[in-house]
Every structure is written in C-alpha cells, then in structure tokens.
Amino acid sequence: MMSAVRMRRLRGSEAMRRLVRETRLHPSQFIWPLFVRSGTGVRTPIGSMPGVSQTSVDELLRDAERAMTAGLGGILLFGIPDTKDAVGSSAWDPHGPVPEAVRAVKREFPDLLVITDVCMCEYTDHGHCGLLTPSGDVDNDATLALLAKEALAHAEAGADIVAPSDMMDHRVAYLRQALDGAGYTHLPIMSYAAKYASAFYGPFREAAESTPAFGDRRSYQMDSANGREALREVRLDVEEGADILMVKPAGAYLDIISAVKRDTRMPLAAYQVSGEYSMIRAAAERGWIDGDRAMMESLVAIARAGADMIITYFALDAAAHLARR
Ligand code: PBG
C-alpha cells in the first residue's frame, strides 16, 4: 500500500514554496562588520576578503549610509590603530579609530545601531587578546581592567552595544560592573560567548592586522571538538549579565547555535566569519559555485539553526538580494 502523503505537493511552484517556507531572512537580522583606521579618503581592499576594505572614518560614513538605506540591523566596528604596544594602550584612546567612527556615525545616522568589538588583539604589538605574563601566557585577570577601559572609551563615544571577543574568564561581569559604575547601566553587552579557536579567522587577521606574533589562541578560545563546554561558557555569560549571546564561527557550529538557543532562550547572534565568507567568494570567482545562492543558503542555515541575528560580511549583498525578490 502506497502512502497518500506526497511531499512534492508543496514544492510545485515558487508561490507554494514561499507559502510553506519555515525560515525567512530580513535585512534587520544582518550585522555588517567594518574595519576602520585613521586618515581621510582611505579605502584599502583586503586581499583575502574580496569586497571588504579597511576605511578611514569619512569613507566609513558612506558604508554607514549604505547600511541605513539597506535597513541592516547594525554595524560592528573593528579598529586598526596607528600604533601598537605591549599593553595595547591605543585600545582606550578616545581619539582612536573606533571612538572617532562611533561619534561620526552616531552624529550622521543616529538611528543606525553601532556595535563595537572589544578586544586587545588589534592593539597589542604581539597580537594576543590580552596582557602577557613574562612567560608569554595571557594574564586573564590583568586583562580585564584593560578591556574595561576600552569598553568605556566606546561607551563614552556613544556605542549602542559593546561586544567583548577576547574570551577571558569573568570579563562580562567585570565589564558590566565597570559600565554600571560609570553610569552606562543601559548599555547592552553582546558577548562572544562560545568563540572557538578557528582556522576560519585567517582572512580577518589580515583585515585587522592582528595575527599573533607567536603561538595561537587555544589557551583562551574554545576547542572545536567541544559542545557541552559551550553551554557552560554561555551559562556563565548569562549569569554575569550578558544581554545577547554569540556563537562564532557559524557554519561549522550550527549544532552549537541550536543547542545554545534551546538551552538559554537568550537573544542569539552567530558570526559568519571571514573564512566562511572568503571560501564562498573564492569558489564563486572560479565559477565553481553560484555565489549568490551559496550566500543565501549559508545565511538561511544559520537562521534555521536558531540565530536571531547574523554578523556577516555579506550583510549588504544579502540585503540587496532580498530586495530584488
Ligand atoms: C578579535 C576577533 C577576531 C574575530 C573577531 N574578533 C579574530 C580572532 O579571534 O582571532 C574574527 C572575525 C572573522 O574571522 O571574521 N579577537
């Protein structure tokens, strides 16, 4: 006896498929990462990330306008400072690239949500995400104070959300206390809660000029084999006061996104990182895959897994794609 059920009935036309579609993407879910440095008229393409550039603040404003017009959820700022030192002191310079960019964007486009990445690796000459001990280990507790100074510089400039990406223990609690103490009780923290030590960050390190001078980040970022550990990490960040959680990278960690969503019910972001972006762009350039379709499929998969928002270098392209349909 054949089953009366025929799954193909609901796949016959685009109109039918659209009706039964379970996951929908909207530009307001996309957060666009941008790299800012000093100067004027600067737009330096990043070789390993076709379509992505480092820009000066004036050029960044053009991108901010594009983000506004496309209805993106927000932008995420990374700074490339003029000078680096062992403690990363340019990270809390009120006239560093990120605070300058935040002030300019909030002045020109007050409704555009501006998120700042809070980490030391772009600002230290050794490229690690915190202060080093004499033996070259990252000193967790000494790093917290530096991160707080950086987050406060971003808050004072007018950032809407601060996003610590360093993976030091207790940094969410420390930042929450520092922000509250300075009167920023209203400022949300988006925590890079489950951030893995990943080969997919390769192109970003060219973009942010933040490759570690020695060693790697495995003593603070997570081991890609671990899922239960991610739940411990995120629960800790929730207890410490994180407002939005993040899983990073996204594509190779869809199970983590799904588990975190189920386990916490928190607003959840996923970061489709540089390597995920560049792989799709590179294969599309060679004509090996349809770049547009691969872009949308990768994003819908991240949303289907449970991410409420997606940080992606495709933000503008994906929004344009959605507007065309
Ligand atoms: C800073 C940071 C990194 C990324 C975001 N914030 C690099 C790293 O941890 O090495 C990676 C983003 C990407 O690859 O797109 N700690």
UniProtKB/TrEMBL annotation:
<dbReference type="GO" id="GO:0005829">
    <property type="term" value="C:cytosol"/>
</dbReference>
<dbReference type="InterPro" id="IPR013785">
    <property type="entry name" value="Aldolase_TIM"/>
</dbReference>
<keyword id="KW-0479">Metal-binding</keyword>
<dbReference type="GO" id="GO:0004655">
    <property type="term" value="F:porphobilinogen synthase activity"/>
</dbReference>
<keyword id="KW-0460">Magnesium</keyword>
<dbReference type="GO" id="GO:0006782">
    <property type="term" value="P:protoporphyrinogen IX biosynthetic process"/>
</dbReference>
<comment type="pathway">
    <text>Porphyrin-containing compound metabolism; protoporphyrin-IX biosynthesis; coproporphyrinogen-III from 5-aminolevulinate: step 1/4.</text>
</comment>
<feature type="binding site">
    <location>
        <position position="129"/>
    </location>
    <ligand>
        <name>Zn(2+)</name>
    </ligand>
</feature>
<feature type="binding site">
    <location>
        <position position="313"/>
    </location>
    <ligand>
        <name>5-aminolevulinate 2</name>
    </ligand>
</feature>
<comment type="similarity">
    <text>Belongs to the ALAD family.</text>
</comment>
<feature type="binding site">
    <location>
        <position position="121"/>
    </location>
    <ligand>
        <name>Zn(2+)</name>
    </ligand>
</feature>
<feature type="binding site">
    <location>
        <position position="119"/>
    </location>
    <ligand>
        <name>Zn(2+)</name>
    </ligand>
</feature>
<feature type="active site" description="Schiff-base intermediate with substrate">
    <location>
        <position position="248"/>
    </location>
</feature>
<protein>
    <recommendedName>
        <fullName>Delta-aminolevulinic acid dehydratase</fullName>
        <ecNumber>4.2.1.24</ecNumber>
    </recommendedName>
</protein>
<keyword id="KW-0627">Porphyrin biosynthesis</keyword>
<dbReference type="InterPro" id="IPR030656">
    <property type="entry name" value="ALAD_AS"/>
</dbReference>
<dbReference type="InterPro" id="IPR001731">
    <property type="entry name" value="ALAD"/>
</dbReference>
<keyword id="KW-0350">Heme biosynthesis</keyword>
<dbReference type="Pfam" id="PF00490">
    <property type="entry name" value="ALAD"/>
</dbReference>
<feature type="active site" description="Schiff-base intermediate with substrate">
    <location>
        <position position="195"/>
    </location>
</feature>
<feature type="binding site">
    <location>
        <position position="233"/>
    </location>
    <ligand>
        <name>Mg(2+)</name>
    </ligand>
</feature>
<keyword id="KW-0862">Zinc</keyword>
<feature type="binding site">
    <location>
        <position position="205"/>
    </location>
    <ligand>
        <name>5-aminolevulinate 1</name>
    </ligand>
</feature>
<feature type="binding site">
    <location>
        <position position="217"/>
    </location>
    <ligand>
        <name>5-aminolevulinate 1</name>
    </ligand>
</feature>
<comment type="subunit">
    <text>Homooctamer.</text>
</comment>
<keyword id="KW-0456">Lyase</keyword>
<feature type="binding site">
    <location>
        <position position="274"/>
    </location>
    <ligand>
        <name>5-aminolevulinate 2</name>
    </ligand>
</feature>
<dbReference type="GO" id="GO:0008270">
    <property type="term" value="F:zinc ion binding"/>
</dbReference>
